[in-house]
Amino acid sequence: MMLMTKPVVTSLIDRLPPVRGRYRENAPLASITWFRVGGPAEVMFRPADRDDLVAFLGAKPAEVPVTVIGVGSNLLVRDGGVRGVVLRLGRGFAEIVAEDRDVVCGAAALDLNTAKVAQASGIGGLEFLCGVPGTIGGALRMNAGAYGKELESVLVEAEALDPGGRVHRLSREDFGFSYRYSAVPADWIFLGARLRGRPEAPETIARRMAEVQAARADSQPIRSRTGGSTFTNPPGEKAWQLIARAGCRGLRRGGAMVSEQHCNFLINTGNATAADLEELGEAVRARVRETCGVELEWEIRRIGEPAVPAGGRGRP
Ligand SMILES: Cc1cc2nc3c(=O)[nH]c(=O)nc-3n(C[C@H](O)[C@H](O)[C@H](O)COP(=O)(O)OP(=O)(O)OC[C@H]3O[C@@H](n4cnc5c(N)ncnc54)[C@H](O)[C@@H]3O)c2cc1C
């Protein structure tokens, strides 16, 4: 008689090293991103602290992909979710300390909280950060900026881990910054940064922060399910002007819509899928290409896999 042996299928979580932080299988991502769409993470890892993260990177199987996310204000997670480990830095990475005219902050610190600590400590020049709803990690990756200032202009140095868990100290020059871009390898994980401002009266800084926030509320759909600017501004042009010229304001696909208020923002009107949003973005790109002859580039980072069609993997 032939013995039928069942193939042993081990789930990813069983192949990961022991950690002090938390693993969660099939962790929802839609609820933690601004767009509120997308499938789950195969495994979500929240390291307890930096040593925990370093140990994890050194011990995990090399072929397991790791995707780090901040608070998902610049992310479109596709409907099929993200394979491998999604890394989310939490409290152990969110400290913010003022030192003389510097603010030293962890990668999970919110840009808004960083701006607030700078203001309370009389450190001027960081108030633009209160207009960016992300983390310092996301700001380093995206060279986040608002109202004429970018992270590049205040960064002294930062620390990052490479995929093997080795710590690197990076100067501003090492970042190779340009508009909404840093040239640090895409699989490196930022741990924190030292930002530098100038001495200034807290009341003056508070006034400028209030101006930044008022300007944002006037010009952006900040209470909507959105991912901020969808496309980068092409050299010498404004993406929103090209989108308006191509007649895309208010354009819809399923539950996704081009914002009427700021047409470089896409909005989940309530029941959009990630596919609706991505297809709408591609439709806008096609119209801008045809009407204006300009190729828009995605600023929003799209991660993960499309949904598998019902009934199987679809046709090859
Ligand atoms: C309403 C609204 C308004 C916005 N306005 C602005 C604006 O004025 N200016 C602006 O620049 N942006 C703006 N954005 C976009 C967004 O807030 C920024 O890009 C922000 O820097 C993203 O940070 P995050 O923590 O949300 O990163 P996520 O969206 O979670 O991730 C973005 C990218 O950063 C990477 N990343 C995150 N953390 C780390 C880390 N620790 N190490 C390495 N990589 C990391 C991710 O892998 C991903 O590639 C806006 C977004 C919204 C929703």
Question: What do these coordinates show?
Answer:
- This protein is of the alpha+beta class.
- It folds into three domains: 15-91, Uridine Diphospho-n-acetylenolpyruvylglucosamine Reductase, domain 2; 93-205, Uridine Diphospho-n-acetylenolpyruvylglucosamine Reductase, domain 3 (2-Layer Sandwich); 221-303, UDP-N-acetylenolpyruvoylglucosamine reductase, C-terminal domain (Uridine Diphospho-n-acetylenolpyruvylglucosamine Reductase, domain 1), CATH 3.90.78.
- Helix content is 22%, strand content 25%.
- The chain contains six helices and 19 strands.
- The strands form six sheets. The chain has a five-stranded antiparallel β-sheet with strand order 6-7-13-11-12, covered by helices on one side. Strands 1-2-5-3 form a four-stranded mixed β-sheet, with no helix packed on it. A four-stranded antiparallel β-sheet has the order 15-18-17-16.
- Strand 17 (256-258) and strand 18 form a beta hairpin.
- The protein is globular and about 75 Å long.
- The two termini are 38 Å apart.
- The model has no long low-confidence stretch (mean pLDDT 94).
- Flavin-adenine dinucleotide (FAD) binds at residues 34, 68-75, 89, 107, 131-135, 137-139, 141-142, 144-146, 189-190, 220, 222, 226-228, 301.
